[in-house]
């Protein structure tokens, strides 16, 4: 299996700084994490090698933790040979599909949180 966790700490400080109620802001950040994970999953499926389609069809996401100070999400491929594809072997070149999708989706997370806070009238 191959997977990556996306973690954002210090949310409590951010909420305080912006004067946003933590419960409301926590929902915004958790929703942003869910949409970010969905984007990363879609991109990973597009980047994954496809032979039988098993690896591509078994890329899963979930929010592992969401509280007033952090939100943690995970994207992983359940195929046991995923890490060989992600990192390569001495016989096979790497074709990363998880790490690039996380890197490409991270700005989406920040923008999603920013937009949600703008809508709430708390951030300009």
Automatic annotation (TrEMBL):
This is HK97-gp10 family putative phage morphogenesis protein. NCBIfam families: phge_HK97_gp10 (TIGR01725).
